[in-house]
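Lab notebook, design round three. We kept the backbone fixed and only want residue identities now. Task for the bench partner: fill in a sequence for the structure below.
Input structure tokens:
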């Protein structure tokens, strides 16, 4: 009986340690692009989610009010054409500066993604768009290559499409 309790204790410690490790060591998909438009012009395109179906290859639909603390519903399309619907909580909605949300599977800690669009003003009416997602949770280490293969290229595609639309 004592050996069983020790073994269970070791398993609990290992699982807890692994969980903490995956939370403090996130996987980040980071992209950025310089846009020939002001932060206000870029924000206008980013915030006009009703028009996403016209130009956005990644987030093909986004509904709900852009209010920090609220939720929205997004439909994403990966490079393989697979669509996923989720309802993230909006963390930051700062016009012309930042839009950030967090999506979680189940109660959180399994596979959480904090998605961010940050706009940095550059000289000559240009903007740096930083588009990234920080993934945390116990399932993340097993999905890194899939995220790199199917999601990161969609970030880049969205960045270019957004830049083209904002520069018009």
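Proposed sequence:
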């Amino acid at each position: 009986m004592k050996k069983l309790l020790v073994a269970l204790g070791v398993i609990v410690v290992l699982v807890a340690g692994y969980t903490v490790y995956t939370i403090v060591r996130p996987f980040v998909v980071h992209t950025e692009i310089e846009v020939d438009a002001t932060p206000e012009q870029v924000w206008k395109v980013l915030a006009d989610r009703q028009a996403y179906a016209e130009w956005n290859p990644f987030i093909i639909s986004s509904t709900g009010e852009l209010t920090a603390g609220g939720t929205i519903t997004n439909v994403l399309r990966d490079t393989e054409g697979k669509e996923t619907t989720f309802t993230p909580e909006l963390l930051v909605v700062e016009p012309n500066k930042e839009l950030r949300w967090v999506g979680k599977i189940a109660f959180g800690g399994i596979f959480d993604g904090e998605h961010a669009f940050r706009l940095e003003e550059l000289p000559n009416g240009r903007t740096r768009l930083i588009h990234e997602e920080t993934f945390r949770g116990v399932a993340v280490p097993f999905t890194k290559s899939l995220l790199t293969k199917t999601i990161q290229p969609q970030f880049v595609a969205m960045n270019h499409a957004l830049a083209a639309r904002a520069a018009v």
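Keep this in mind before ordering anything: The chain has a mean pLDDT of 90.
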